[in-house]
Structure formats: C-alpha cells, structure tokens
Design goal:
By secondary structure, the protein is an alpha+beta fold. The chain has two domains: 167 residues, 3-Layer(aba) Sandwich (Aminopeptidase); 84 residues, no CATH class. It has seven helices and twelve strands. Strand 2 and strand 3 form a beta hairpin.
Length: 271
C-alpha cells in the first residue's frame, strides 16, 4: 500500500517537483522553485502531498495583507490528475490551517474559478470559506490548459480559519438544499448534454436565491468552447449584479440527489 504524507516541503528537489505539477495542470510553471523557496523562508508556506516520497500535489502561499489584515495568500493548489478526488486537497488545507493558526494568522485567502464545481464544493461547502469579491478577468488571458482562452474570472475567498462557521463545516455540518428557493437562472440541457441558460432573472428580491452553474466545466471547455464562453459572461453578469444589490455568497450545493445532480450557489441578503 502506498505511503502518503501531507507536510511542509523541505528542500529544493521537492520544490522542483511542484514546477512539474504546475506544468501538468496549467501547461507551464507560474511560480519558480526559487520564488517558492524565498516565500517559504520568509512567512509563506509550501505544503505537499507525497505518495511514496513523490510530490503529487501542493499548496503554495505567501504572506500578504487583505483589507488591512495580515493573511496567507494561497496562490496555487494543484494535484496530479490521477490522484484527484482522494481528499488530498482537503488534507493539505487542513495542514495549512494548522500551520497558519500556530503562526498567528487568522485568514487564508485565495482565488478560484466560479464555474469549477469541484473547487466550489471544497472551498465553500467543506471548508466554510466565503467569497467576498468577484473579479472579472482577474489574471488576464494566460496560457492555461484549464482556462482554454476564456477570461480568468475569479472569486476572492476569505477563509477565516478560527471562526465557528469554519469549525462547524469541518465537522461536516451542512445546510440542507431548499429546492423551493427562487432561481436566478433556469437551465436546460443542449444536444451535447451540457446545461445552458434559457432564462436569467435580474429583478428578484427574495432574501435567498439560487444560481445554477455547470457541473462539467472542463468537458464543456474541451467540447463546447462557445457555450463555455457564454457561461463565463452570463455568470459574471449574474454575480456582479446581485453582489451590487447587497447579496453575498453564503453556500454552495454540489451535485447530489437533492439537487437532481446539478449544482447551485446560494446567495443571501440580510433583511
């Protein structure tokens, strides 16, 4: 049985292996091992998952300020494709949380693609992080295999690691899905089996709203890039509109029996 470790990475060889994973994931390394070394020495962290001493996943974070408060900015997390869906990402986040608490850091922040349901489930549903900003084309157009030429829209997440919300989520506490809530967008499957919006409502005022997003974003970007581009722009329009009206993202419901195999963001506005 393979031996799995999740820990702070220690040497330049392990840092070089993170460059390899970047290339496999995005097509090219975005952060060199030299930059990782400097950041890890002076306040940041480089955490890896090792299988039989080989690095197969990593988190890279540097020391930063977010809204005037000291934070770890988790710039990258990647796991080799054949090792995904084994809980490695979650376990690395747990190690990062513990390291940050020991160092007196109260928030870990990062960005993620609003249309990546796997990441939304981990970040919001399981970890209890809260998207605080929607940034259109956050990194510009860059040669990412996952982005496939689309604008790099991102949520900016704030994971307040010592809060009650986070503690409850880490224990498995989850809000039940309420299928009766008003839906901002109504979708239907096209001939390829991908969902597309058939209506979008920007005049809703209920305190809780559901926004559906695609489940198979990566497949869509490979087989139906015009539809993927349409989803990017329509999701941007929806989220920016309702955030400007005072709503915030409060939860994410991954594909499950109660959602009919679909996924939804829950937007909430205080009374």
């Amino acid at each position: 049985m393979p031996r799995v470790e999740v820990r702070l990475l220690k040497n330049l060889d392990e840092f070089h292996q993170c460059e390899r994973i970047q290339t496999l994931t995005w097509g090219a390394p975005g952060v060199t091992s030299e930059a990782m070394t400097a950041a890890a020495k002076y306040g940041g962290v480089l955490i890896g998952t090792l299988v039989d001493s080989k690095v197969v996943g990593f988190i890279f974070a540097f020391l930063a300020q977010y809204h005037g408060h000291l934070a770890h900015w988790s710039h990258m997390m990647a796991v080799e494709a054949k090792y995904r869906d084994r809980g490695f990402g979650f376990n690395m986040k747990m190690v990062h949380r513990q390291v940050a608490i020991e160092r007196g850091i109260k928030s870990i922040c990062w960005t993620f693609d609003p249309l990546q349901s796997r990441n939304a489930r981990l970040n919001i549903s399981r970890l209890g992080a809260i998207p605080e900003e929607y940034v259109a084309d956050c990194y510009g157009r860059f040669p990412s295999l996952l982005e496939n030429g689309l604008p790099s829209d991102r949520w900016v997440l704030n994971w307040k690691i010592s809060t009650t919300r986070v503690a409850l989520r880490l224990k498995g506490d989850a809000r039940p899905f309420d299928q009766g809530l008003p839906r901002v967008n109504e979708t239907k499957l096209n001939f390829q089996g991908f969902p597309q919006n058939r209506s979008i409502k920007l005049d809703l005022a209920h305190h809780n709203l559901l926004v559906e997003t695609p489940v198979q974003t990566d497949a869509m970007r490979t087989k139906a890039i015009p539809l993927a581009r349409r989803w990017r722009l329509e999701a941007r329009r929806i989220f920016q509109h309702y955030l400007a009206k005072g709503y915030h993202v409060d939860d994410f419901f991954p594909p499950q029996s109660s959602t009919g195999g679909r996924c939804f963001y829950l937007l909430r506005r205080q009374a």
